[in-house]
Predict the 3D structure of the following.
Amino acid sequence: MNDPTSLSPLDLETPDKTFLDANELVINMGPQHPATHGVLRVILRLDGEKVMGLECVIGYLHRGVEKIAENRTYTMFNPYVDRMDYVAAVSNGLGYCEAVEKLLNVEAPPRAQYVRVILTELNRMASHQLWLGTHALDIGAITPLFYTFRDREEILKIFEKYCGARLTTHAFRIGGLQYETYDGFEKDVKTFVAFVRPKIDEYEELLTTNRIWLERTKGVGKISGQDAIALGVTGPVLRASGVKWDIRKALPYANYKNFDFDIPTGENGDTYDRYLVRMAEFRQSLRIIEQAVDHIPEGPIMAKVPKVIKPPVGEIYHSIEAPKGELGYFIVSDGSTQPYRIRVRPPSFVNLQALDVMCRGQLVADVIAVIGTLDIVLGEVDR
Amino acid sequence: MHALLQYILSYLDSDKTPGGAGNIFWATVYILLVFAGLSVAVIAMNWLERKILAHMQVRLGPMRVGPHGLLQPIADAIKLLLKEDIIPAEADAVVFWIAPFIVVLAAFTVFVVVPFGPTHAITDMNIGILFMLGVSSLSVLGIVTAGWASNSHYPLIGALRSSAQMVSYEVAMGLAVVSVILMTSLNDQSTGTLSMIGIVQAQLAQQEWFIFKFFPLGLIGFGIFAIAMVAETNRAPFDLPEAESELTAGFHTEYSGFRWSLFFLAEYSAMIAVSSIAVTLWLGGWLRPFPNLLVGPTWDLVFLLFPGITFLLLAAMCFYNTARMPKHPLFKVQTIGLAGFGAVLGLIGLILFLPAVRIRVNDIFWFSAKVAGFMYLYIWYRGTFPRYRFDQLMKVGWKVLLPTGLALLVLTAVVGMRSELWAELQGVWRP
C-alpha cells in the first residue's frame, strides 16, 4: 500500500468508488453529524483511525440559486445572495451589488462606500466569531462558543438597528444603500470596537497558548502555498500558507485603498496558523472600522441608477474578499432586465476541495479539526 | 425479638465497620445509605455541573424547572424513564441488554470499601485499594460490550478507544497508588497496608497527608493520579470515547432512555469513586484540614462546627435568592419552593450543630467536601480544555505518566529507606 501522505495533491487519483478493501473501514460522516457544520457528507476510508482518503458528497442544501437568478430581475435577485453564505450575508450583497454596478458603469457615492466597508468588516468579524466558536467546539473546547456568540450578538444588534434584519440583512442596493444610517450609528460602532477589543484577547487567552490546543492544531491539515494556489484555495486558508493574497489589497474594491491595514499571513499552513491569521484579521478589521467610522463623508447614499435596471449587453467578473475567501460573481447580460447567466464563485466550495489533500494520512479527529478550520458554510457550498 | 434488638444495638459500641464487626443489619443499612447518598450525589452533580458550566460560559443554565432549575435532574430522570427503549434490529440484544448493567455494577460495587470515616464504611478489606482498582476497571468490559453489541461503526470505535485509554491509564494510576502504599509502610513495625481505612490511619499516625510526604514526591504521585483518573473516567479533556464532535456519542450512541441513563449514572459514580480514592490516598480521607497547625480543643470545636455552618450558608443563599425572585404571581410556587428548600437546608444545618450529631458526621463531611472539590475540578476542566487527540492521549499516558510513575516509585522507595540505605553504604565503604 502506498503511503498516503506521499501523494502530491495534484496527482491525487480519483477516490475509489467501491471501497471494497476489507482492511479498510468506510465511515459515513454526515450528512447528520454534529461536526460537519451543516449537511456535508464525508465518506472516510479509514485504516484504524488513519484517514486513507475521503470524498465529500455535497448538494444536500442545493437550492439552485444561480438558476433562480435567470428568472429574476437584477434587483429581485439581490436578497437571494444573502442566503448563500448566510453568516456573511453583507459580504455577499456587497459583491453582487458591486458587480452589477460595474456592469452598469456606475459607482456608489462615497458615503455609501464608507458605510458599506464598515458593515462588511463588522460582518467579517461576525463570521470569524462564528468560525472560532464552532471550530473550538469541534476540538472540544466548549466555552469559546458562548463567548463569541455573546459578542457576535452586539454586531447583529447593529445590523438589526440599521436594516431590521440580523442574519440575511440585504443591507445594500445596486448603486448604494437603501437606508440612511440611523442616529447614533457611529457611536454604536465605536462602542462596539471598544467593547470587542478586550474580548478578542479573552478568546486568545483561552486558546492561543493552551497546550492541548497547540497539540491539536499544530501540524494538522498542512497545505503548502503552491498546493493551495493550484487548488484555487483563497482567503485565510491561503494566507496561512504564506501567500500574501488579499483582494482588498490586490484588486481594491469599494474604497479599501483609502484604509491602512495589514494582511496577516502564516508560515506553516497548518490549522494553528489559520487560527492565528483569523485572530489577526479580527484586529485588522477593527483597524479598518476605526478609520472608516471617523471619516464617513456627508452626501447622497444612492448613485443615479435607473428605476429599471437594464445593463448593456456584456459580461463582468467581479470578486471581493469575503470572510472565507474570494467571492466572485460572473454576470452575463443580454441587455434585458434579467441576467442571462450568473455564476458565483463561492470560496467555501473551492476551499472544501482541499479537504482531501489536507486530511490524507491524518487521524479521524483531525478531519473534524480541518473541516472546522476551512470555515465552510454549506449554504454557500451547495448554493 | 430481644436478641435481635440486642444484636442491632451491640454494634453501636463497636469501633469497627459493620462489615468488620460482622453485623449484617448495620451493613445493610450502610449499603442502603451509601446507595441513596450516591444517587443524591449524582443528581446534585448533574444540576451543579450544568449550573457551574453555564456560569463559566456566561449563560444561566437550567432556570425553568423549579427555582433556579433545581428540579431539572428529576425532570430529566422522568423523561429518560418514559422514553422508548430502542434496541437496534442488528444489535446483539442480550449483550446490548447486559452491558449497561456491568458498567453500573462495577461503578457501585467499589463503594463497598470507600471509607467515609474510621468506622463509616460498609466494610474494611485488607486489600481495599486493590479491590477498588480491580472492580472499577471491570467497567471497561461493559463499555466494550456496549460498543460491540451496538453493531455500528461509531460505537465500535468509541468502545475501542475507551478500552485502550482505560487500560493504558490504569498502569500509571497503579504506579502512583503503589508509591502511596510504600509510604504507609514507614512506621516502626514497617507494615504497609492496602486497606483504605489503614491508609488514612497511616497518614494520621505519620501526622502528614501523603500529598505533602517527601515533597515533591507525594505531590507528583498525586498529580499522576489526578491526570489518570480524569482519563480513566472518560471526562474532558480525555473524553475521546464519547467525543461528541467526532463520534457523535461514542459507545452509547445506540442507547436510549433508561439504558442510557444507566451509563450516565455509572459515569458520575465512577467520577465520585476515583475522587474518593484520591482523597483517601493523598488528602487524608476523613481527616480535617490543618491537623498540625491549628491544634487544641478550640480548633477541634471550630472544625466540628463546619458542617452545620456550610448548610446554614447554603440556606442563606437560598433565602437571598428567594428575596431576589421576581414578584409576580407566576413565580409564587417557585418562590415558596425555594424558601422551603432553604428552610430544609437550614434545619439540617441546625441539627448538625447538636453535639451528638456533629461528632458522628464530622468525618463524613470532610470526606465529602474533599470529594466535592474534585467534582468541581472535573467541571472546571470541562469548561476550559479542548480535547486531546487519541495518539496524543496515548503519548501522555505511556511516554510521560508511565516513566514518571516508575521513577517516582523508585525514588519513594529510596527516600523512604534512606537511613537504612545509608547504613548499608557505610558498611560497604568502611573496609
Observations:
- Strands of chain A lie at 25-29, 41-47, 50-57, 172-173, 176-177, 314-322, 325-333, 339-345.
- Chain A touches chain B at residues 25, 27, 33-35, 49, 136-143, 145-147, 150, 206-207, 210, 212-213, 215-216, 363-366, 368 (CB under 8 Å).
- The mean pLDDT of chain A is 85.
